[in-house]
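Sample intake sheet
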Amino acid sequence: MSRILIQYLLPLLGPLALYLIYMSFQRKRAVKKGHDIPAIERTHVFWSIILGFVLMMAGLVTLAVTSGEQPGSGDYQAPRMEDGRVVPPKFN
């Protein structure tokens, strides 16, 4: 669950949440000062979602490039029967 949160949800929803929090503070400030309440613009929401997708993809690419084993290292053992039960596949 934490992997899903860190790799997908946080980068995707983070910029949108920050924009909405910023707009709520701006609206409260405008009410206190008696100014017009700023609208939450669709263009800014769109760009915050796009930024979230870019951050999510950058995180996934970084994870794919910096982690894992080298191709061709290790031996693959196919699933097999041992003592009447199926042993799942694995890499050695």
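Comment: Residues 15 and 21 are 10 Å apart (CA to CA). The first helix runs from residue 2 to 33.
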